[in-house]
Amino acid sequence: MAIERLSPALYNQIAAGEVVERPASVAKELLENAVDAGASHIALEMEDGGRRLLRVTDDGTGIPRADLPLALAAHATSKIHDLHDLDAIRTLGFRGEALASIASVSRLTLVSRHRGEGRAYSVHVEGPEQEALVAPAAHPGGTTVSCAELFFNTPARRRFLKSARTEGLKVREAFCRMAMALPGTAFTLVAEGRTALALPAESGPLARRRRVAAILGKEWQEALPLGPGDSRLGVEGFILPPLPQSVARGDELHLFLNGRPVADRLLCRAVKVAVAQSGGPSGMARAVLFLTCDPGEVDVNVHPRKDEVRFHHEREVHDLLLSCVARALPAPLDGVDGAQDALDLPGLQPLPRVSASLPPPAPRPRHTAQDQGAVAAAQRPGALPAGNPAAASEGGALTPWWEITPHTALLRLEGGFFLASDRLLSLLWAKGRYLLEMGEGRVPAYELLMPFALTLSGDEAISLRKAAPRAAAAGFRYRISGMRLSLLGVPLYLRGSDLATTARAALKCLAAGDTGALALEVARAAHGSAPPLGELIAALGPHALTEAKGMMRAVDLVGMAQDLEHDGS
Prior knowledge:
By secondary structure, this protein is of the alpha+beta class. 34% of the residues lie in helices and 23% in strands. An eight-stranded mixed sheet has the order 5-4-3-6-2-1-7-8, with helices on one face. A five-stranded mixed sheet has the order 9-10-13-11-12, sandwiched between helices. A five-stranded antiparallel sheet has the order 16-17-18-19-23. Helix 7 runs antiparallel to helix 8. The chain is elongated. The protein starts with 7 loop residues before the first helix and ends with a helix.
């Protein structure tokens, strides 16, 4: 078979098969061109999920009249000029095939007015065989690209498109990814003639947090900050604490490298490993990361869609990102195998010592025997001198303990010997402190900047209305309208926690009147550094430790000694 050179129509169709998969692919390419043009406002319009029409308008530099025919030609671009430019890509688009590929499978109109010219011009093509004809047009500064009837000339590919709703959601995802990457640029999304999302330009140190929260939801206003990385890889962004295994919802991971949305497997793996090491569900993460590096250290020309990259020093980048994410997350609970309750959420740490104005005294709530022991422990702060063994005393009773590691102690309690970590002990201490403050009506409060909304069942709404006085003493302030609860304030200890999980769990405890479970939920979400083992054991005392021994790992020292004796005989 003879070798023949492909016609422009044929190779444009082949390129379109790589670049243009669905309307969202077109939206991504057109949005990238608008960003590269230096636009301060970008608008995206779609009809029928983008199948009938996709239009992107920007106020960027525009395209000179002489360059308009080339803008729709294959392998023509203003963004690279030689091989050296390809080694350090600084723009989102650069391959020079997007507009030509889109034009080959749609009816495309481009209208632009360059900043250096006095009027606008348009060019229109339909399919791969059309000649680009330039004509005068009316348009303000910038560019509008309209892509109508996608795949009108390739009906087989059009049949593979999903419903208008599904394709519209994919277009919205592409729009939101670009908007998150550029908080300083205003974005508007118009769907089926209605404004679906209007994002004003943000500025200042909180610009990225505000833009992320506007797109992903209010819970991201309280997300944990990340960064700063180092000179090799700059890291900024936000991460939500891991959800417990029982309520894990899957990934919500958004990565940006030098302003480019990416879905790189190396970067995703580093984030997920760090989350798993902190005690979160394996392979799941909820984070928005903005990474920066020298463009010469990364190759972005490894996939036609430009969403995968390859680093020249992959191992260093992986380890650095893993370390940054791990530092931002709460440390895992370790050294305790039998702590079923304590293992539900990672990063159990004691409540911070804070000062706050005292609310009016509230009636002292009723506690279980274990809760009373925890309250008593919170009233006995103190430290023991280092020793091995050491003892904490309460009314003449002794609790011998041995320091196995700097973070793990072996306790001798009623029923035998038990291993406990400082994380578990500090959780018990934090629970007692919160119960004490709740009983005295002096829980420090934190007013939310924006009310946090939760939907209730009928029984929950009734119970929480009745529990409002008890909730106020516990540091919670809310307003209920029908089945909707607006959370206005929480205990200061919950600041920075994932309210979507923590607040709902705490409110369920309030509705059920379970003060002990409420205190445990608040203690789990608190952050701080654990006191030394000796201080924790002395503060808790034998009573609280004995009540909590079911959360510790039992150690059969007698059996071990008998085995050693048998082996030596």
